[in-house]
Amino acid sequence: MTEMTTTEVERRRGQLAALSIAAVVIIVGVPLWWRTTETYRAWLPVSQINELAKLQLQLSTDVEVVFARGTVTPEQQKKVPLTQTQDDEHTVDEDTVLRYRYETRYRTATVMEEDALNQLTAAEADLSLHTLSESPCGSLVVYVIPESSSLLPQDVEVYIGQRRTALLRIGAQMRVGRTIEQLLAHLEPRLKQVLQVMSFSHTDITAALSDRVRLSPDNRESKADSMRAFKSSPGYEITFSLLNPDPKSHRLHWDIEGAVQTYIQPLITKLAPVANFSIDSQTLYYAMLGVNPRFDGSRNAYTLNTDSLAHVINPVEARLGSNAASSNPVLNFLLYVPDVHRSPLYIQDYKKQEVPSNAFHSPRWGGIMVYNVNSFYGPDAVFPVDINIDMAKVMGVFLAQLRLLLGVQPSSSPPGFLVEPCGSTGLADWELDRLMWSRSVENIATAATTITSLAQLLDQIGNIVINDNIAQQVSSAVTSLQLAVAELEAGNLGFALQYSKEAILASERAFFDPSLLHLLYFPDDQKFAIYIPLFLPMCVPILLSLLKIVSEARQKRREKQAKKD
C-alpha cells in the first residue's frame, strides 16, 4: 500500500511538473519569444496613400483681360463682367483625372497703362507694362488694343513678349454695333490660344505624365519632347568639355568662365526655383571621335552623316569622367575641334544637307558641337597654331541645347502670333511658368507613384522592418503631396513646385532607405530551419508528457464510468 502511494505521489508530481513547464512555456516563453522576434513596423498613413494612387489634379490660373481705350464703348464698359470662370476636365485614364480652371478678370486700362501702350514698339510697351506691375508666377495679363494701334504689324493679331503679358488686337468687325457678349465671344478663341502658348496646355501636362499614363498617337510629338528632356531632379551638373585631338596642330584658348557668366548664368539664375545647378569645365587632349568621317571631294571637306552620330558619344564619354560625389544628372556639352588633317568637318542631316549649327544633341545626355579652325592654317602657319575660340558662337548653340534638355520646349505659335525672342536671360517669364507647371505635375505624379509602390511592397512583404525614420519620410512625402495638390488647385504655382520637390525628395529617401533591405531575403522556410533545432528537443518531452496526462485522465474517466455501470 505504501509503495502504491509513493508511486502515485511520484506520478502526480511528474504530472504537475510537466503542466508547470508547459504553462511557463505557453504563458511566459511564447509571448516573450514572439515579442523579441517580431518585425517592428511603424504606422503609415495607408488610407491617405491609397487616395493618392488615384491622381486627381486641378490646375488653376488667373487671367486678367485689360481693355485699352478705343476697344469698348462707355455703354459696354458698364456691362463688362468682373470675373468669369471656365472649367475643363480630361479623364486621362481610370486613375488619372486632370481639371483646368481659368479665372478671368476684366477691367479697363489705367492712365499709366495707356501711356505704356502708346510706346513706339510692342517690345517697349511690354517693358513699360512690366515696370508698372509685375504679374505673379503662373498668371497672365492680356491687353486688348484697338485695330488702329501701331504697336503691331498689320498681319499680327497677338504679340507675346518676354514677360507675362500679351497684346491682343481687336478685329475690325468688332469695332461698333456689337454687344459686350459678342465682343467677349469674339475674344475667347484668341484668349484660349494665348493660354495654350504662354501657360499650360493639356498636351504638355499629359507629356509630363508620360511615365504614368500611355499617351495617344496624337501626343507623339510631346512624347518625343519629354523623352528628350532630362527627368525632373532637385539638381543638375553641367559639364563643358573642350576636345583637342591634336595639340601639336593647334593650341586652343577658350574663355569658358567668362562665357558661362555671360550666357549661361542668367539662365541658371532664372531657373533657380526649378532646380540647383553646378557648372564645371575641362579640356581633354588626344580625344578622338568614335567614327571616321568621310571625305567629300565635291565639297573638299569631311562629313559626318546622321547614322554615324550615335557612335560618336560612347568612346568620348569614357574619357569625360563622372562626379561620384553627386547623384544628380549630368548634362555634357562637348566642343570638338578637328585636327588639321580632318578639317573642315561638317555634320549632315538626313537630307545630306549641312547642319547650320554644326552640332547635335543626344536626349538626356547633352550636346556636341564641331568647331572648324581650318581658316587659321595659312601657308606660313607655325604649328601649333594659337586659336582663340569664338565663345559667343559656341554658347549660342549650347544655350539652345540646354533649353531643350531642361524641358523648355519651343511652343508652336498659331497664325497671326508674334513671339518676342527670350533675350539675354535665355528664358522668358512665361516660358519659366510653362516649365514650372510641367515640373510640378511631373513631381507630384512621380512622388505619388513612388509612395504607393512602397506601400504595396511593404504590405506584400510583412517581414520588412519599417522604422520610425521611414514612417517619418513617408508621412512627410504624403503631407507635401497634399500641399502641392492644394496649391496647384489654388493657382499658387511657386508653392506648388516647392512642395512637389519636397515630396519627391522625401519619397525617394524612404523608398531607397537601406534599412528596408535587411529582412527582405529572409523567407519563412529559413525561419523554420533555424527554430526547429532549437525548440523541437525542448517541445517533444513536454508534448509527450501532456499527451500521457491526457491519456491517463481519459483512462480514469472510463474506469469511473465502468464502476458506475
Automatic annotation (TrEMBL):
Record's keyword terms, sorted: Endoplasmic reticulum, Glycoprotein, GPI-anchor biosynthesis, Membrane, Transmembrane, Transmembrane helix
Main location: endoplasmic reticulum
Family: Belongs to the PIGS family.
Transmembrane residue ranges: 16-34, 528-550
Any Pfam family: PIG-S
Keyword Signal tagged: no
Membrane association type: Multi-pass membrane protein
InterPro entries per UniProt: PtdIno-glycan_biosynth_class_S (IPR019540)
Superkingdom to which the source organism belongs: Eukaryota
Pathway: Glycolipid biosynthesis; glycosylphosphatidylinositol-anchor biosynthesis
Name the UniProt record assigns to this protein: Phosphatidylinositol glycan anchor biosynthesis, class S
Native source species: Anabas testudineus
A cellular component term, taken from the record's GO annotations: GPI-anchor transamidase complex
Compartments where found: Endoplasmic reticulum membrane
Gene Ontology annotations of biological process type: attachment of GPI anchor to protein; GPI anchor biosynthetic process
Gene: PIGS
